[in-house]
Specification:
The protein is built from 6 helices and 4 strands; from the N terminus they run αααβαβαββα. It has about 140 residues and is mostly helical. Strands 1-2 form a two-stranded parallel sheet. It has a two-stranded antiparallel ribbon with strand order 3-4.
Length: about 140
């Protein structure tokens, strides 16, 4: 009921939905909030490098926004933005979107029908990909 109330408020224009909020604040990489967010990510990588600490990044997609086989995923610009910062900073990057965009019904990745956080199966899939991507660096 809570989720439906939130959706109804979006439809009626009473409130702004999360997808629109994120797009408005981070969709344009030159917008003030996006520049701040990406700047902080860049600063983190630079400080880690200066301290001799290896760093990397991975992005876990919003499973409640995937749609069948990842269709119409609304946050691709975030994945692209982080990927670009990582490339510019020469930091390893793993995008888990392709790993999870293979499900006809992404709700099988959810903890419950009321909670779109990743369940144990999704966490396992992510863990395997993360170890595959970053394991050699961790072993050094």
């Amino acid at each position: 009921m809570r989720n439906q109330w939130g959706r109804l408020q979006e439809i009626l224009g009473i409130s702004e939905g999360y997808v629109r909020y994120m797009q408005r604040n981070l969709g344009d990489p030159h917008a003030p909030n996006a520049r701040q967010a990406y700047g902080q990510l860049r600063e983190f990588f630079q400080q880690a490098r200066a301290s001799g600490v290896a760093a990397g990044a991975y992005l876990f997609p919003a499973t409640d926004a995937l749609g069948p086989n990842g269709a119409s995923y609304p946050f691709g610009y975030l994945h692209d933005g982080v990927k670009n910062i990582c490339a510019e900073e020469h930091v390893p990057f793993l995008d888990l979107l392709p790993t999870f965009a293979t499900f006809p019904d992404p709700r099988v990745l959810w903890v419950s029908p009321f909670d779109a956080h990743p369940n144990a199966m999704a966490a396992r899939r992510a863990a395997y990909r993360i170890v595959e991507a970053f394991g050699n660096e961790w072993r050094r």
